[in-house]
Amino acid sequence: MRFVIVTGMSGAGKSTAMKMMEDMGFFCIDNLPIPLLDKLVDFATNFDTQMKNVAIGIDARSGENLDKVQDMLEILKSKDVQYEVLFLDAEDAVLVKRYKETRRSHPLAQGERVDKGIMRERQKMEFLKKEADYIIDTSRLLTRELKTELEKIFVQDEEFNSMYVTILSFGFKYGIPADSDIVMDVRFLPNPYYVEELRPKTGNDVEIQQYVMKYDEAKIFLNKLEDMVTFLIPHYISEGKNQLVISIGCTGGKHRSVTLANELYKRLSQKKNREYGLKIEHRDIGKDALRGK
């Protein structure tokens, strides 16, 4: 039997993950009373049931019983029960935004602002995060991307990488992305915008890519950036960081930054034995067109 405890921060996507795991063949129980946890495991392991894969949802709704989870995990260990912990997390600002959009109250806010509830919940959930076998930061994940990550873990049995690297192109005139960890400015490169026939195209078009990458300074910059990122990522992983956003910006986020972001993504995705997931986004690639420029 595969026994998974699904937990994490309220608003990080635990309920969505549980539904996805149910589709993957797991018998899912959300918000199970903590004192019943070991009894459920005993039933599933000692009787002839159809529960071959079980996922139990535990979160802040358990209230004071949440403090008993650690004792329950010790009981499971004493019984040699093999279990896995999946922890769904997200940045505080993202959690606040999600709560405001749904107009729900945080279970630990106690009549105060949402951010107070999130702070209390982080303190209560810290021990479970340390126990986690898998930590997925959903701050920038689309629903289909979360499903892909869960399938890798629970269907394809691929080795899981807690670190997720996002390479993000942007335009400085639209502001630096607030969640950037590393910001690189490529406005020193020649700008295709001033070549009339290239202006409507983007860094996803081969003509722009050839224009930008024909310059030695672009190639040298890319080599140095790849070298720096390759050096940094293992150190971020060892420090427990699970989300890294590398933002590459030019003036409008359409030509140079898109080209360099694509090139960096291509190089990193080709590395063997990567210890991190990888995705790419072009935040501002279409904004000039929307403005009629």
TrEMBL record:
Record-linked InterPro entries: P-loop_NTPase, RapZ-like, RapZ-like_N, RapZ_C
Domain of life: Bacteria
UniProt key word Nucleotide-binding: yes
Residues binding ATP, per UniProt: 8-15
Amino acids binding GTP: 59-62
Residue span(s) of domain RapZ C-terminal: 164-285
Assigned keywords, A-Z: ATP-binding, GTP-binding, Nucleotide-binding
Every RapZ-like N-terminal domain range: 1-157
A GO molecular-function descriptor: GTP binding
Keyword presence, NADP: no
Record protein name field: GlmZ(SRNA)-inactivating NTPase
